[in-house]
Amino acid sequence: MKMTFRWYGETDTIPLKYIRQIPNMSGVVTAVYDVPVGEVWSDASVSRLKRLCDEAGLGMEVIESIPVHEDIKLGRGSRDVYIENYCKNIRTVAKYGVKCVCYNFMPVFDWLRTDMHHVNFDGSDSLSYSREDFDKIDPQNLHLPGWDESYAPDELRSLLSAYSDVSHDMLFDNLVYFLKAVTPVCDEVGVKMAIHADDPPWDVFGLPRIVSSEADLDRMFAAVPSTNNGVTLCTGSFGAGRTNDVVRMAAKYAAQGRVHFAHLRNIKYTDDKDSFCEVGHCSAYGSLDMAAIVRALVENGFDGYVRPDHGRNIWDENGKPGYGLYDRALGAAYINGLFEYAEKCAKADKH
After folding, report:
1. What is the pLDDT of residues 301-324, one digit of tens each?
2. Is 168 one of the catalytic residues?
3. Is 58 inside any structural domain?
4. Structural domain of residue 250, as residue ranges?
5. Is 234 among the catalytic positions?
6. What is the pLDDT of residues 232-271, one digit of tens each?
C-alpha cells in the first residue's frame, strides 16, 4: 500500500514539511481548489502542485477530487460540456503522474454532520451525526454545520428544488452516462476512478443516494465493467450504514481489483438509530474492526492508496474539523502497523 495524507494546497495550515515527517508517508492527496466546479484546470495549476510536492519529497498520485458538476448529476442539457471539461482534467492530471481520482456523485451535499465539535469522553472533539438533531432541522430554512458558507440561501433552495423530481434510478442513470464518457479516457491514460461512498449512506432532505451499499456498487460495476471504474473504500461512510459488512466489502472488492483508494477511519454508534461520532482510529475506540478490514484488504491483493481519514482535534489543536495534523498522524502510524502485520502474516501464509 501507499500511505498518503490529504493536503488542501498552499492555503492548508499544515505544511508539506510536516506531512513528510509522518512515518511511511509516500505522498499527498490534493486538488486544484481555486477553479469553479465544472471548469478546466490549467496546466500551470497542476504543475505547480506537482512541483511543490516534489520539492517536499512527496508524491502526488491521487487527486481528491475533480468535483462533478450538479448539471451532470441532474442530467441537464449542459452536462456534455461539463463532462468534456472533466475528461480534459483527467488528461491534464495524468500528464503529471496522477494515477487515481477520488470523486463522489452525491447531490448538493458531499457529506453531512450535525456537530463539527462533538466532545468525546477523552476531551477531544470530532465530527458527529445525531439523528435526533437532524430531525429538528427545517428543510425550508437550512442551516447546516460546515455548509452555511458554501451556498447562498436562494442557491440552496434552487438546488433542492431541482432534485425534487430526481429518483434513485434517474440519478444512477446519470452516473452511468458520466462514467461511460470518462472511463474510456481513464483507460487510455491509465487513471483509476474511485467513487466515494455516500456520507452518510442514506437519503437526506429527499435527495437520493446511490452509492451506499454493496448492492449499489455491484450495480455500478455491472453497468461499467472496466476495472478503472472502482471505489474509494471509506470505512467511516460505508460503516455508518449498519447493514454494511465493511470487512466483507473490503475483501470482495479488493479481490476484484476495484479498491483503488481507502479512507480508513473509525466511528462509534451512539444510539440504536443512525447516530454516530468519529473517534480515534483504533478498533477499540469505535464500532468498526479496523484490523479485520485491513487484513481483508491485504489478503485479497490490495496494493493501492490509503489515507488516514478524519481525525479528532487533540492536544489543543484547533484544526479544520476532521483535518487537523496530530490525530491523523497518529492514525497513519496505527494504520502502518496494521498493514505491516497483515502483510507479514500474508507472506508467511504463502510459505
Report:
1. 999 999 999 999 999 999 999 999
2. no
3. yes
4. 2-107+170-265+287-349
5. yes
6. 999 999 999 999 999 999 999 999 999 999 999 999 999 9
